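Hello,

Our lab assistant flagged a job as stuck in the queue for most of the afternoon. It eventually completed. Since we weren't sure the result was trustworthy after the delay, we are filing this so someone can double-check. Below is the sequence as submitted and the structure that was eventually returned. Let us know if re-running is recommended.
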Amino acid sequence: MNNPSAAAPSVPLLLKRTSASYPDNVAVWTPARRLTYSQLVAESASLASALRDALGDSDDPVALVMPNIAEAYIAYFAVAQIGRRILPLNPRLTEREMDAAMARWAPELAICGGVTKDGSVTERVLSLRHRPGTIVSSDAARRGGLGGLPPSFDVIVRDSRGSHLDSAKEPAPDDDWLIQLTSGTTAEPKGVRLGHGQCVRMGYEIGRRLGLAAGDRYFVCNPVHHLGSTNFGLLAAIAHGATYYTMPYFEPDEALDIMVRERCTVHQGIGSHYLVEMTSPRLNPQALSLRTITVGGGPELARRIRDAFQSDGVVQRYGSSESGGAPICGSHDDPLPSRLDTMGRPLPGVEVRVADAGAGTVQSSGGEGEIQIRGWSVMKGYLHDAEATSTAIDTDGWLHTGDMGRLDADGNLLFISRLVDILRVGGENVAAREIEAVLESHPSVRQAQVIPIPHSILNEVPAAFVELEPGALFDPQQLAAFCTTNLARYKRPAKIWLITNGDWPMTGSGKVRKGALREMALEYIR
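-- returned structure --
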């Protein structure tokens, strides 16, 4: 595919064209089920036909609430074929969080299934007060419309075979495909709009940087609601005729066993995935067939991965939901020092610059400042939020990432730190303000401030300082239980400390100095 935008302007057309070349190759591999390219085309088309019959004429999104099971990827391509936007939701969200997401984004239909540590995803979706009017489940126990549900995947696919979709409805490159939820500095997540063309090109370009080709076996740990799973995971594999390997939930021992047994050649994950893999007794570098290992954790982690996996194939990357995935990425054939020490250079057609965060002056090579990105990969904007969009993307089209970095003489990016109040817990972006808002909704809490503390596996986890209402008693166990009810596991504060009124460290302008709070937290946990 020399020109990905012209050759495959939409997600479904990308799949169809790759399937025409490799119909019998495995497209998606999960422990429970494997789909060849031709099967993925046929089953997604059948589901698409049934979904079109079930949906009205609105442009409301379709919610997907699933772990990494085969049906999730069938659903992705099915929704793409009918030109509807897909809203991927984390199945680990609490009932409160999921209900709030359903209420805010108002999907017309939800596709769900699988299980989490908290039980059946379908049962949780059915219990929501703001659940969509139509729910499709992949769970076999839901077959035949039990509990008010329509037939499950296998029945829909069987009964819709032979149905044909109107080709005139084929989505255009600029049509939205994903509404990717991302944590900002506010308590409410924003909906990042990403179109078919930019998602297809992201997969194609990332695949080139990783050296993907037909016959490669690309093991991806990222959950299906992440762009790491879709744009530079699934679509990268599809764009180059490779096989996308995954598992419902990441387990390091099983992941290593799969990669050995299946002779996987490329591995993608986040820092916390590699950290637990490196401590697993199953890690045997000599038994692995990995050619390329990609991560976005910085030089120290990249070198640790190289040593543990005994591989010179480490490639770093940098990106975000707003930037469309990983628009900055090293190449598998770059010199090793560059791949270990930098996040790589922009993909073709993408620009990056570093600017002084205050004055906005563009920095020369080696100067530190805010990382700013421009080009085809940048989001189309935040859904229903023009003000936030204009804040994130300036009038010249530069996305202000809120991250600090610098460029070397070769144009490679070196990441330094974040400017915005976001925690990176495992692979999840978590807004400190979201956790603070939950704590402040407790009747005993007047004010809460959340900061990160180090974690050996997850990189960092939330910790909280709270000021109580007059007369309230400090009960950290009660506050922790309140967070358990209202926040997903990865958002819950690992520690909660008390600060009395007047003892907050403040700036001259009257703001809480979170840097000072972090220093206090480090003293407490030392």
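-- support follow-up --
The delay was a queue issue, not a problem with the job. The result is valid. Residues 214 and 462 are 42 Å apart (CA to CA). Residues 4-196 form a domain with the Rossmann fold fold (CATH 3.40.50.12780).
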